[in-house]
Amino acid sequence: MFKIKTYTIVILGIFISTLIGSSKxxxxxxxxxxxxxxxxxxxxxxxxxxxxxxxxQEAIPVLESLTLQYSNDADLFYVLGLSYxxxxxxxxxxxxxxxxxxxxxxxxxxxPTGSAPSNDIMIKIxxxxxxxxxxxxxxxxxxxxxxxxxxxxxxxKGDPAFKSFNENQEFQQIxxxxxxxxxxxxxxxxxxxxxxxxxxxxxxxxxxxxxSKTDFDKKILGLKSEIDSLxxxxxxxxLMKIFGGLGNGHNLIIPxxxxxxxxxxxxxxxxxxxxxxxIVGAEKGFEKWIGYEVESIGNTTAEDALQKTxxxxxxxxxxxxLWLGPYYLGLPYVLQGLGIIGNTNQVTIAxxxxxxxSQKVIMNPVSxxxxxxxxxxxxxxxxxxxxxxxxxxxYWFKLIPENKSIYVQFNAVTQKETQSLEAFTIELRSxxxxxxxxxxxxxxxxxxxxxGSILPPMLKTIINFELMNPGxxxxxxxxxxxxxxxxxxxxxITKYTxxxxxxxxxxxxxxxxxxxxxxxxxYSGLMGLISTQFHQTxxxxxxxxxxxxxxxxxxxxxxxxxxxxxALHIVMEVxxxxxxxx
Length: 582
Prior knowledge:
Number of strands: 17
Organism: [Muricauda] lutisoli
Distance between the termini: 87 Å
Strand order of the largest sheet: 8-9-10-11-12-17
Number of helices: 20
Protein name: Tail specific protease domain-containing protein
Shape: flat
InterPro entries: ClpP/crotonase-like_dom_sf, TPR-like_helical_dom_sf
Strand content: 5-15%
Largest sheet: 6 strands, mixed
Helix content: 40-55%
């Protein structure tokens, strides 16, 4: 009897709770019932247009009306919060931006002064609190943003929003800064290493997928114990080795960034062709060595030296050994740290000319500024082949009417000031239609990625081209430098089209850990990037190390120095065969 009564009470309680919940849900549904959906949509479009044109004050009443009518659209809370922020209404901005987070955030792009990821919104809330004079909540929301892997932490330290307490000790500490008074050099470096460890754990999507936590801790402790016996440059290289152990290609250290320990480089640029390691670029006074094959560095063969660079080369796959290994071979302190040379001031390199005549050359390192990983350089004293002619231009095209083709080189996922990527793709579609183009050739061989959020117009254009030209083909030229956002585009192209892939395997994985969060070490000034996000562009079970080409084509040194683009020539042969069959 007692049990029956108990169950009756429980069931009655559930029934009442259900009624209350239903009533609440009904109330919310009623609140979000739009009487005139078309008018609502038109007002929403108007509001977003006002925001994109920075007409913040005009946008506010429209957005306030919309959010009162309908409370399920986080996009509107987001742009209303930004509008309040830009007009100095910081308390209101905080309320609306918090509503955005409560609704799961937004993915809106192209919004001035805004950034869609939730951690960016948290930082915006911190700034609003700071502008409103609430230091305690500003610091709290800064820490929330950092705990959510905010990308640009080092650049916030001098942000105008925090000017009232920029030198506050608590504020300084969250950036790793503490007084250097009385600290010895070794203690300062240990402080830097501690902060770097904290930043890796704070930022990295999964720091111990390639190296165990135990091994990571051993490396950190080992480096700390050796600080006094190492030069600043050697410490930087040891940190590069730790980064190499983290795996995935978005982890890197910028070797010229530190105030203490900046690395110099050799005055030449190496490139690994299918027939060996060659010098492809050089500083003034060293141009005569361009075209020479590298047989050995120190007492280590070029082949073995290249494999040794994997110790500092955090990479997604072995194509990055071919791409970035030659870059690391140009850094004498890295060569020393890998046991390839002993003297960093004089590096002996055995070179061989085109007549197989060998000689040893001593090179002295030079200072330089890191501006990104090197691309294959243009040829000296020779007309440039198409694929090298405009590598500095993010995107451009050339009509090849004799083959009913259009060649599109996409070198960086970014926006040009003179023409947005979307406008460029509109022009592509127009030119293809006007000129009876049947074949599209997309060259991604120089593309290291960029802002992946702007890729949809390019992907849509490629899909549209294939649909509108069933008798033609889409070709993608790809290789070791097809990386990051360019890899994402390549993966999507293979998912949604029947594109023919030509060249080398790609420089990343279809599903990979990407993005990049910045760190800056307080004492040395050393800067770098740490992987922060997982990109599942392909199926969940897709564990491929790269996307392989359908037509494998490697570049030889002979072809490069003679200005021959074998991959493009093969594409033209396939096109000609296709056209002849019609």
